[in-house]
Design goal:
By secondary structure, the chain is mostly helical. The chain has one domain. The protein contains three helices and two strands; from the N terminus they run αααββ. It has a two-stranded antiparallel sheet with strand order 1-2.
Length: about 110
């Protein structure tokens, strides 16, 4: 790549850490991912059979991995929503009669 190409890439292509948007990723997911990779390599090395105990284990492992990802992402979303809700509840105030209509909640 030319010197102009490198500067253009640096100027216009954002660079972020690989797992930047996956703050919910945990070591348990790494273990499940690795076991899924291992069983898939074994399955591939024996000819990729569509039946048998190796294929059944591969599918179970894949399902556990996908479910764990789904649950981790949902838990992160739930936690985020709860945090936002708590933050907004703290910002609610009850307006007194002198400063506005009595009994109306406003956010600040």
């Amino acid at each position: 790549m030319s010197k102009y190409g490198k500067s253009a890439v640096g100027a216009y292509v954002p660079s972020v850490k690989a797992d930047f948007q996956r703050e919910w990723w945990c070591p348990e997911l790494n273990e499940l991912k690795q076991s899924c990779i291992d069983i898939s390599i074994l399955w591939s090395s024996i000819g990729r059979p569509l039946s048998g105990c190796i294929n059944a284990e591969r599918l179970r492992c894949k399902y556990r991995y996908k479910q764990a990802i789904k649950m981790a992402a949902q838990e992160n979303d739930r936690s985020f929503n709860d945090d936002i809700y708590e933050h907004l509840c703290q910002k609610m105030i009850l307006v007194s009669g002198k400063h506005g209509v009595n009994g109306i909640a406003l956010t600040i």
